[in-house]
Request: fold
Amino acid sequence: MTKQKIICDCDPGHDDAIAILLAANSPQLELLGVTIVAGNQTLDNTSRNACHVLQWLGKEDVPVYPGCGRPLVRDRVTAGDIHGETGLDGPVFPPLRKLPEREHAVHFLIRTLLDSQGDVTVVTSGPMTNLAMAMRMEPLIVEKIQRIVLMGGSYTNGNVTPAAEFNILADPEAAHICFTSGRPVTMIGLDVTRKVLCYPEIVERMAKVQNRASRLFVDLMGHFCKTQKEVFGWEGAPLHDPVTIASLLDPALTVTKPMNVRVDLSHGDSYGRTNCDVFHYLGLPATADVAVDIDVSRFWDIIEEGLRRYSETEAGA
Ligand code: BDR
Ligand code: CA
Reply:
C-alpha cells in the first residue's frame, strides 16, 4: 500500500495530541514531520508538548519543527481556559529527551513541498500561520500542495465568539490565504467536530486498551472533558482535531459539500467567521469541501484502532 504523505501542522493542545497519536503510527500514513504554531499556548509550550507526546509514544524519530509564535496581523490569542497553563495540562510526562529541530517550520514546509512530487497533504489543526507564511515566502510551493485538510471554522456557531472558531479567529488573515490558495481544501469545522463528544463511557472504553497510548488518552481527556464542561457545559468534550486524520484514514467518515468559504476579515463582531455559502446564494465557485456530517461510531472505532496499534510498539519514557 502506498502511504499518504502528510505534515501535521498543530498547536498541541489536547485534541492535537490525539491527532498526532493517530497519525504517527498509521500504516496508511507517512508522517513527514510535525510543524508547530502558537495557538492553544505559546510556541515554546506547544513545541514542548509535541515533543512530550512523541517521546511518550516511542515516536522520537518524528521531527518537530517550531514555527511562528505570533499570527500574521492580529494580536496573539491563546486557549488557556481549555488547555491549561502548559497547553497540555493533565498528563505527567517524564523528563524530556526529545529536542525540536533547529529548522523553522516554514522552511521545512517550503523545502519538503518543493522537493515533493505534489503528493504531500498538509493537515492543520491550529492557526494556519505557518502554511500561509510558507505560501507567501515561496509561492512555488502552492501548486505542490496536494491538499489542505484543516480543523477550523464553522458554518453554524463559533466557540470563541458567537461567530468564530478558535483556529480561524487566532489568525484569520492566514486562514484567508489558505482558503484562497486555489488548492483543494477540506474544512473540518465545529459543525461536525461537536458531534464527536468524548463521554465518560468513551473514556472507559479507551482505558480498556491498556497501553501507553490509552493511558495518555485517558489523562488528556481527564483535563479536556473537565474544562469543556466548565466553559461550554458539554457532558463530553468535542474531540475536534483528530477528525482530520481520521477522515484521511477513512474517506467515508465524513460527508462533505463543496462551498464557497470566505473568512471575515472585517475586524467587527464576526472577525474570523468562516462564511460558508451552504446554499450557493452567491453563485461563486466552491473553495472548500466542507464537512457537514460524520459517522460518530466509526470515528470512535478509528480512535480505538489507533490506540491499539501502540500495543506492539516500543514506547519511550
Ligand atoms: C480548535 O481550537 C483548539 O483549542 C483545539 O485544539 C482545536 O484545534 C477547536 O476550535
Ligand atoms: Ca488544535
Observations:
- The mean pLDDT is 96.
- The longest strand covers residues 29-36.
- The two ends are 31 Å apart (CA to CA).
